[in-house]
Amino acid sequence: MAPIAIKGAGDGRTVIDAAQALRIREYDLFRAAFRQWWGREADDKALERVFVAYMFHQVVPPWVRHFCRRVLDMQRQGRLDPVALGVAGFRRVERPPPLGRLYVALTSVAALILYLMILTTTYDPGTSAPMGCSGGPGLKFFTDIVHAFSDKPPPECATPRNPH
C-alpha cells in the first residue's frame, strides 16, 4: 500500500530551511514573503492568522511557498542576498555556541561553590578576619572538603583567640 501524500507536507520543511538560510525567525519570513508578494506590509492580525495555520496545521500559503523556493534557489546558486530580499532589518537568529551549555554549567557550579564558601565562612568580630580552626586555612568550606575526601572527621575547633 502506497503512503498517502498530504498536500503541502514538505512545505513546512521548506519554510524552516528558508528561514535558516536567511537566519531569521519563521514569522519574519512570512512578513518578508507578504511584502514581496503584495508590495506592502502585512496587517498584523491577518498575518498572525496565516502563521497560526502554518504552525498548527502546516498550511503554507502560495506566496510564502514561492518566496521560500526563491530563497533556496538563490542559496543553491550561491547568490543569497538578505538585503535584496528585504530581510536585512529582521532580527537574526544566532546559533548558540557549541559548548554553551557546558559554560553555563561550569559557571553555575563555580557560583554554587562561591555561595557555599560564603555561607561557611565565619569572622572574628574583633578583627573581621576569616576564621577557621587554629592553624587551618581560614575557610571552613575547604577544611570540610579536605576532610570529606580524606575520610577523616574534621578537628574540633578551639575557641577563637581574642587579641584584646
Draw up the topology in text.
Elements: H1 11-22, H2 26-38, H3 44-57, H4 62-76, H5 82-85, H6 100-120, E1 122-123, E2 130-131, H7 140-150
Can you give a write-up of this model?
The chain is mainly alpha-helical and 164 residues long. The protein folds into 2 domains: 11-85, no CATH class; 103-150, no CATH class. Helix content is 55%, strand content 2%. It has helices at 11-22, 26-38, 44-57, 62-76, 82-85, 100-120, 140-150; strands at 122-123, 130-131. A two-stranded antiparallel sheet has the order 1-2. The chain is elongated and about 80 Å long. The protein starts with 10 loop residues before the first helix and ends in a 14-residue tail after the last helix. Residues 1-8 have low confidence and may be disordered.
How many angstroms separate the termini?
Answer: 94 Å
Give, in spatial order, the strands making up the sheet with the most strands. Answer: 1-2
Instruction: Please tell me the total number of domains.
Output: 2
Computed over alpha carbons, the radius of gyration is 31 Å
Category by helix and strand content? mainly alpha
Query: Which consecutive residue ranges, at least 5 long each, have pLDDT under 50?
Result: 1-8
